[in-house]
UniProtKB/TrEMBL annotation:
Signal peptide: none annotated. The lineage of its organism: Bacteria, Bacillati, Actinomycetota, Actinomycetes, Kitasatosporales. Residues 761-772 have a biased composition (Basic and acidic residues). This is Integral membrane protein. Keywords: Membrane, Transmembrane, Transmembrane helix. Residues 754-806 are annotated as: Disordered.
Length: 806
């Protein structure tokens, strides 16, 4: 009897692969979601009109139909350009440029030695930068007092020719109620007081709009004490949420501005009362001056007492400092204005208000702080020297010098142009020190011009040397002199970025020395440079007058160009994008030193990206590759650092045209130095970085593991001449259009294929074996894919000890 046939074995069902997501982040120039996604039909899946995540319309419901995405990823784009170049009012942020630059000095300190943290030195460094930042606020308000109180209310309003030619000043003519100097000063003091209030309002408003984004629970290390040893600074839970320090500094700088205005009014009025022998008014004046000194001490205490707390998101506020200090300063200013309005018959204004001493004292204090800052930075650098660090650890002091120079030029430009606007009939003269500062500008520009010519000559020689071997890099190409010179020129121009530290060193050193000479000249002579050199050698006298005249003209021209640029950026979206590029680089860092600096867009963008990656991987169980171009790669790396460890191990990172090491690693070594970048390489599932020799911004990302992470330099152009694949001449792409390079598709597809497959074990990370000495660089040929060798799970030592952010 035949046996019944066996039933057919059931076919094994394929295990569905997890959904894969590619999250793209654009760079400084911004990009529309249609361009990032290569599709004109896009939809916003989360976010608002300022920053949002977009998808192709066809992919809006991808999570509901994962079977449709077998072998291909869901692509998203995070668009953040409106954080820095949105409406026209942000062009006014140009006026806050010195504040932004001094805030950068806080982050440009050298790295703390591995295994031997120096918290006291780090705190001293941060303290000195905060004092410099406070001096810039005082300088701005003092410049406003110089214009409103000295030039207008004291000098112009005290002169009949000046008041008669201006109908809006006739109410302050001598003999009228407002004609007394004290009352004129009290009225004019409302201008710098209003400026101080405007800065407070902008700082408070931009905090609410940009930086008040709370991080997701369990972000970064997730440990209440800041995580285990080896946690990079950008991975700490509270790094992107500094509410407490910003609130404290905002209150202190607001109070300092109001106290500066009060002092500018109280000092000349009290001097008059003392000279007139008015006992009661003299006593009131002494009491008010004593209160001003007490207020200054309170401001200094608040600024010096506490720096940033990064070990946790600090939601607490110091109510006494944030509320009582500005309120008390405002009440004291009100009392001073009432005191100044008291009737003083027979008092007339003549000469200048005592502003020379105030400006000189500020300049001297800034110079002393910069010297001390350089000493602390050099001490830190000597404990952990790194040749890649800009200026051998003196990058922060050099940036601080630039911030002070910008503040001085802007202050002098405002005062000088206002004095010119008053006209010849008004005997209004700005402080002598401002004329000496303007006279310093031509020698500084001449020195920079000489340095530029020197580097240009060297670049020409380098270009000729490179051009001789360009054609040999493309197999089978026929040499073309013009083509070789064009490619060599692009490479040479890109290499000039590495010369930026030399320019910064020359600019800061010359500015510091000449600034000290200007201060000494102003205090010793009490006259403008041209008059001080009268009777000296004819060449010296002519040089002094030429420097004074040229400096005044250059300061005025620079100030007018500055205002014109800001006005154009207000009206022209293209110019606004240019201003936005400046803020993309300068406002990446939180406001740790100056609360009136433009807002930190990364305190909105990094939590956005962290929330998106954490929520999506937790909801779908899928895996994710985040790809960033230029500044977008910095945001992507910062967001990956903030991910919980279990999410970070399921994320791959693709960067291209990235300034992570070339710019950020050199100028901000404590946060993007070798240790933090190697730690990032170990933590993510896989990291690949593309770069070109023609790119002036991007470069290799990780020095010691460069073969494991970096693929480059990529050929640019992709073809030397006409080929079957490139029948038309290929362009030199430089910093842009990495997506058009075949290597980009190869690396992205390899990352996504790795992520779409079964999750590799924790000790199986891509790229580690390529870091062995003598290993071949991956990606030498397009489409080779990514290896998946083993990688040590050992963590790097900390680049910045917890709780010592300065």
């Amino acid at each position: 009897m035949p046996h019944p046939p066996h039933p057919p074995a059931p076919e094994p069902q394929a295990v569905p692969r997890p959904l894969a997501l590619e999250l793209r982040v654009h760079g400084v120039h911004g990009a529309a979601p249609e361009k990032l996604l290569d599709d004109p039909r896009t939809v916003r899946v989360t976010g608002d009109a300022t920053a949002a995540v977009f998808r192709r319309t066809a992919d809006a419901e991808a999570e509901a139909h994962p079977e449709r995405y077998a072998g291909r990823p869901v692509v998203e784009a995070y668009c953040w350009s409106r954080l820095t170049s949105g409406n026209g009012s942000r062009a006014l942020w140009l006026l806050l440029l010195p504040f932004m630059v001094v805030n950068l000095a806080h982050w440009a300190r050298p790295a703390v030695p591995d295994g031997a943290p120096q918290p006291q030195a780090v705190r001293t460094y941060g303290l000195l930068v905060r004092i410099l930042a406070l001096s810039l606020t005082l300088l701005l308000i003092a410049a406003a007092c110089e214009v409103a109180l000295d030039l207008l209310a004291w000098q112009c309003a005290g002169s009949q020719p000046c008041t008669r030619s201006r109908w809006w000043l006739r109410f302050a003519e001598p003999g009228r109620w407002w004609g007394q100097p004290g009352r004129r000063l009290a009225l004019a003091a409302l201008v710098p007081a209003a400026l101080t209030g405007l800065l407070w309002f902008l700082s408070n408003r931009t905090w609410s709009a940009y930086e008040s984004q709370t991080p997701p629970a369990g972000q970064g290390t997730g440990a209440p004490g800041g995580g285990p040893a080896g946690t990079p600074a950008l991975g700490r839970p509270g790094f992107w949420y500094g509410r407490r320090i910003v609130a404290r500094l905002r209150a202190a700088h607001t109070a300092a501005g109001l106290l500066t205005v009060a002092a500018a009014v109280a000092v000349p009025v009290a001097r008059r009362d003392a000279a007139a022998g008015a006992a009661v008014l003299e006593s009131v004046g002494w009491a008010l001056e004593a209160l001003l000194v007490a207020g200054a001490a309170a401001v200094a205490w608040v600024v010096c007492r506490r720096g940033r707390t990064e070990t946790r998101p600090d939601h607490r506020l110091d109510r006494a400092a944030t509320t009582l200090l500005p309120g008390a300063a405002l009440a004291l200013l009100t009392a001073v204005l009432v005191y100044a309005c008291w009737s003083r018959p027979g008092w007339t204004s003549s000469g200048r208000l005592p502003g020379d001493f105030a400006f000189g004292l500020l300049m001297l204090g800034q110079g002393c702080c910069i010297v001390a800052l350089a000493a602390v930075a050099r001490s830190l650098y000597r404990r952990a020297p790194d040749p890649a660090t800009a200026l051998r650890g003196l990058g922060g002091p050099a940036v601080a010098v630039l911030a002070c120079a910008l503040g001085g030029v802007m202050s002098g430009g405002v005062a000088g142009r206002f004095a010119d606007w008053l006209g010849e009939e008004a005997p209004a003269e700005p402080p002598v020190l401002l004329s000496w500062q303007a006279a310093v500008l031509p020698p500084v520009l001449l020195a920079l011009a000489f340095l530029a010519v020197f580097h240009a000559a060297g670049a020409a020689r380098t270009r000729r040397r490179i051009a001789a071997g360009v054609a040999a890099e493309y197999a089978g190409s026929v040499p073309d002199g013009d083509r070789s010179r064009r490619i060599a020129g692009a490479r040479t121009a890109a290499a000039l970025t590495d010369s930026a530290p030399r320019f910064a060193a020359a600019l800061s050193g010359i500015t510091l020395l000449l600034g000290a000479g200007a201060l000494a000249g102003a205090w010793l002579t009490g006259e403008v440079p041209g008059e001080a050199a009268r009777g000296a050698h004819p060449l010296l006298e002519a040089a002094a007058r030429a420097a004074q005249d040229a400096g005044s003209w250059l300061v005025g021209l620079g100030f007018l160009l500055f205002v014109t640029w800001g006005r154009r950026a207000y009206r022209d979206p293209a110019a606004r994008r240019t201003v936005g590029v400046l803020w993309d680089v300068g406002t990446f860092w939180p406001r740790a030193a100056h609360p009136f600096a433009p807002p930190c867009y990364a305190e909105r963008a990094v939590p956005d990206l962290t929330w998106r990656m954490t929520a999506w991987t937790g909801r779908t169980g899928g895996r994710l590759v985040i790809s960033g171009h230029s500044q977008g790669s910095v945001l992507a790396a910062a967001a990956v650092w903030q991910l919980p460890p279990h999410v970070r191990h399921r994320v791959a990172l693709l960067t291209y045209g990235s300034p992570l090491r070339r710019l950020y690693g050199r100028w901000f070594p404590a946060y993007f130095g070798s240790g933090p970048l190697l730690s990032l390489h170990r933590d993510v599932d896989c990291w690949r970085n593309l770069w070109r020799a023609t790119d002036p911004i991007g470069g290799p990302a990780v020095p010691e593991a460069g073969r494991a992470v970096d693929r480059g330099p990529l050929p640019d152009p992709v073809a030397y001449g006409r080929t079957a694949e490139q029948p038309l001449p290929a362009p030199v792409l430089g910093h842009f259009d990495y997506q058009d390079d075949p290597a980009f598709s190869a690396e992205r597809d390899a990352l996504l294929a790795r992520l779409s497959g079964p999750r590799p074990p924790a000790d199986d990370r891509c790229g580690a074996d390529d870091a062995r000495p003598g290993a071949a660089a991956p990606g030498a040929g397009a489409g080779t894919g990514l290896p998946a060798p083993r990688l040590s799970r050992e963590r790097a030592e900390p680049g910045d000890p917890p709780g010592t952010a300065g």
